[in-house]
Amino acid sequence: MTSNASSSSFSDEDEESAGQKPKTGSIDYSPDAIENQLPSIALNTSIDEEKVSVADDHHEPVTEIARGSSREIEPERLISSTGESNLSTETGVWRNSSKVEVDGATSSPCSSGYAGEMGTSSGTASTSGADDIQELRNNSSSVGNDGEVLHSAQWVPGKRHVDEDDTCMSWRERKKHFFVLSHSGKPIFSRYGNEHKLAGFSATLQAIISFVKDGGDRIHLIRAGKHQVVFLVKGPIYLVCISCTEEPYESLRGQLELLYGQMVLILTESVSRYFEKNPKFDMTPLLGGTDAVFSSLFHAFSWNPASFLHAYTCLPLPCATRQAAAAILQDVSDSGVIYSMLMCKYKVVSLVGAQKAPLHPDDMLLLANFVMTSESFSPICLPRYNAMAFLHAYVHYFDDDTYLVLLTSNSDAFFHLKDCRIQIENVLVKSNVLSDIQRSLLEGGMRVENLPLYPSTRYGSLFHNEPSDRSQESLQPGIGGPDGLWHFIYRSMNLDQYVSSKFSSPITTHQHQKRLYRAYQKLYASMHDKETGPHKTQFKRDGNYVLLCWVTTDFELYAAFDPLADKGSAIRICNRVCQWVKDVENEIFLLGGGSTFAW
Amino acid sequence: MGCSSSLPDRSVGRVGGLNPDGGDSDAKNLRVKLVLLGDSGVGKSCIVLRFVRGQFDPTSKVTVGASFLSQTIALQDSTTVKFEIWDTAGQERYAALAPLYYRGAAVGVIVYDITNPDSFHKAQYWVKELQKHGSPDIVLALVGNKADLQEKREVSVQDGIEYAEKNGMFFIETSAKTADNINQLFEEIAKRLPRPSAS
Ligand SMILES: Nc1nc2c(ncn2[C@@H]2O[C@H](COP(=O)(O)OP(=O)(O)OP(=O)(O)O)[C@@H](O)[C@H]2O)c(=O)[nH]1
Ligand SMILES: [Mg+2]
């Protein structure tokens, strides 16, 4: 919440593990501790000191985001979700300082029964434990390039630490847990550990949620020491995040929404009817083999701005290239295709919809996150399009990065869509779209070093070859852009799209990138805070950056500068960035082609 | 992602291109739809990848829905058979969608893992399903995969043979890992295909 607090949370460790946190100190804050302590959390506990030191020039809301009618829970007086009870919104941080005993009765050694239970399909378990190291290793490798792309390519999806359960110290020290459980308390999914072994823990979460629910109220958030426990109830499905990452409540809740969306994408919302028939229904088998999908979603929560901006981003391309792609997608989309998307990793090359309803950016994120085969035809559900029904997705990879997705409601359309794809492919090859995509991947994008300082026609395009740029950048580390500009994200409100500059020095390591990501995330939450009202601008200086945010009805700009940057020149630079974005907008955004596709 | 890397489809020894509208199955050039069914993790995608691209990916990912691959083989009698292969997902949630993929299939390849008796039971379920709802003249093959894991074997060869015989199926044990019997599997299937000589 404060600059110092956040800097401490961005130590070398990844969120996955609190690593070398001393065991003694960590016990209090473990989820298990919360579980054990919930009954004894008293309302009169002291206000956490952490929240007092709010950054000077910006008021981050530290309020308890618990809404609903006033309701006291006696005698435990635990998680009241009230906004107006004696637990004022201001003092929403509850301290949990007493020692916790591990319930010896339930403790069992962490065995490795998981892999067997889940079948050989969980072969990804072999990467178990490698992620933390993996992430650290990346630090040295991504220099001056589009670090996000680099490191996401190296990151290996798959469930980690599958052998753990809530009796394991290592499990309790994980910085961010995600759980999904049913209203009867059956575990459905856990980010870490074995769902089946977490039945007791899951039942506890269920008890908490139901207790509040039975009183006609809803629980949103519990704070206990450094931990936030965020709840989201979706019919018979309960989602819980337990985190000590200091991300804002709104961000964590948004992540739970996306987690739910990902489940809906795989199963549709109609799974809830199973619970109507049988409250004890076990949903885990229905999610079999999806560990990689969820782990890559959690990973996206720490690097993909789309996950909190709710906007998508395009691969920068010369205008003519994108038009060529759009034209051919448009041609085929008249034949029963609901949406056609040409994608490069998580970036859009072109997107055409036969219907008026634009594809929701969250649906695009979830779809791009859902891994598919080189050529496949699979049922998927777009939660924001129709959460109750499956569409069929024809997916074809042209190369490792570039793929086509054609969505239809017709389950017999495979061969038709395959024909469409062949047509599309022919055009893409002939008009060099695929090679332009590869070129853009390597050298495209907005680099802060290239920010034009004076209006000039020379900068009307990102695709004039300026061969000196790249070498210059690697020769002069620590420079960044003019006046200490390090990075920016520009989000266009009416396009639902954002563009972010490429990471360049000094934001070159994965840690730096993740820290900046978290800073933006926090800034975003504070700019959109409902209680303090939307802000227009914010200037925030801390030990790591100067952050400048500017929100208008047309756009939002988030920019990071050298911590010593001057406020006046930072504002000037932001204006230049906006101008630059305008100058090259037809290369970085997908602009509505008028009649064909109304955005 | 199945076993397949996301590389463009390319293979050695393939006859003809990837062209679905060349619907011209004649006596010399057969074009057949083949569906692979079986529990998740038994190695369906690995078998296909081995057959189509000659590769084995030990980190193979769970298949989603179904993926489509094709491969053409030439037989001794100078006929060619183009297999259009539906590699289906073995995960439970896709079971209800199986008819989408096996409808009209001329060949059903049902795979189990010789180290996993449950997968053998699941295979029997698929055999029954195809006998009931598949094409009437479907050629069925029962495949015991992961034959390289002899020391972990839990389904005997005899059990496989007996079940296959009872149900008029062709039986073979394979290893996608070592490539053992993979080509043989498809060649034997090709030989058993009904030839459209009369029509
Ligand atoms: N030892 C051994 N392992 C194999 C063999 N074939 C596949 N595997 C392993 O079995 C696991 C699953 O293989 P897949 O081909 O993905 O399984 P699948 O049947 O396609 O599974 P679904 O797509 O979920 O239906 C992978 O980890 C492979 O490495 C084999 O012949 N021998
Ligand atoms: Mg598979």
From TrEMBL, chain A:
FUZ/MON1/HPS1 second Longin domain boundaries: 337-423
Biased composition (Low complexity): 1-10, 119-130
Region Disordered, residue ranges: 1-74, 100-131
Positions with biased composition (Polar residues): 37-46, 100-111
GO biological process: protein targeting to vacuole; vesicle-mediated transport
Cleavable signal peptide: none
Record field: compositional bias (Basic and acidic residues): 48-62
Domain FUZ/MON1/HPS1 first Longin: from-to ranges: 176-297
Residues annotated as domain FUZ/MON1/HPS1 third Longin: 484-584
Similarity comment: family membership: Belongs to the MON1/SAND family.
Annotated function: Plays an important role in membrane trafficking through the secretory apparatus.
Protein name in the entry: Vacuolar fusion protein MON1 homolog
UniProt organism field: Lactuca sativa (Garden lettuce)
UniProtKB/TrEMBL annotation, chain B:
Region described as Disordered: spans on this chain: 1-20
InterPro entries (UniProt xref): P-loop_NTPase, Small_GTP-bd, Small_GTPase
Ribonucleoprotein is among the record's keywords: no
Keywords (A to Z) from UniProt: Nucleotide-binding
UniProt-listed GO biological process terms: vesicle-mediated transport
Pfam families: Ras
Keyword Mitochondrion: no
Name of this chain's protein: Uncharacterized protein
